[in-house]
């Protein structure tokens, strides 16, 4: 049975860890020093940070798809360390580096639990351009979202009795996710329709499991720079890595 099916049919009584330590084991990587790379202009009338496309890996790539520095983050929407990065570094990454056309930023979900899987489906429930802002909203309101989620756990003890097409809707409703996303442009009906496609929701978890195994991703957040898995997780350390690779911040 795949991880998404185990998640979908399991009860949700176990408490969730909300700490800021990386959610898993550490990764390793090496750095290669490069000369500064000239900024690359976006197409006329556009900004790189407004350009988002879904990749073959089901990630959401923001910025220049041909950027010489390609950064991927595997993040869990229920991971405190990922929330810390979103709160302390995500805006600077996008505004100072993705905006230059030299760095692209692709966010991929790593799924840790049924709430995580439900959130991963909900942030996909609108246009691709909404994916990053919605994920950031979850992380930037992390304590509130997690508090509501933990408060809803008791309601889900008999989740296995819920029809398949209503399972993720029930999770989202109990955890307060439907109201959270409704306040951010995803109506309850729209969210319910997304979550009713159980096979598509579980496919997100299947891809997460497969990619994590293939790439050796065993912690979140994990960053991959031009195919190399990094050990850096904080924005301060990651910015140094980007600059070593040749990125320079946009001029103010």
Nutshell version of this structure?
With 252 residues, the chain is an alpha+beta fold.
Describe this structure in words.
- Pfam families: Thioredoxin_4 (PF13462).
- Keywords: Signal.
- This is Thioredoxin-like fold domain-containing protein.
- The structure is a single chain.
- This protein is of the alpha+beta class.
- It has a domain at 3-9 and 25-141 and 206-244: Glutaredoxin, CATH 3.40.30.
- The protein contains 10 helices and 6 strands, in the order αβββαβαααααααββα.
- It has a 6-stranded mixed β-sheet with strand order 1-2-4-3-5-6, sandwiched between helices.
- Strand 3 (69-75), helix 2 and strand 4 form a beta-alpha-beta unit.
- Helix 3 packs across helix 6 and helix 6 (164-174) packs across helix 8.
- The radius of gyration is 18 Å and the shape is elongated.
- It starts with a helix and ends in an 8-residue tail after the last helix.
- Mean pLDDT is 89; it is low at 11-20.
Which secondary structure elements does this structure contain, and how are they paired or packed?
Blueprint: H1 3-9, E1 52-54, E2 60-62, E3 69-75, H2 80-97, E4 103-109, H3 114-122, H4 131-140, H5 142-151, H6 164-174, H7 177-182, H8 188-196, H9 198-215, E5 222-225, E6 228-229, H10 235-244
Protein name: Thioredoxin-like fold domain-containing protein
Keywords: Signal
Pfam families: Thioredoxin_4
